[in-house]
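REQUEST ID: PR-0412
SUBMITTED BY: lab tech R.K.
PRIORITY: routine
TASK: structure prediction, single protein chain
INPUT:
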Amino acid sequence: MVNGALPGDLTAPAMLDAAFLSTLTMSAAGLPLDPVFATRATLLADCAAPYFASESVRKKRFHRALVEAGIVDLA
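STATUS: complete
OUTPUT:
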């Protein structure tokens, strides 16, 4: 595998929620993260598994910002 390790400051939990799969894959590939993926990477420690059941205030603010920016449509 080429460049397949996560950066030292990012670790995957024992149980990984699908919400983090693309973020960790991009990180392991050494690809730059856009602001949405970078924010999700910082939420990994707060939310881990299960992501959508997490009561993290940071996660709720993040999702509200995605809705308000029109990135996520709740309709």
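NOTES: The mean pLDDT is 81.
REVIEWED BY: pending
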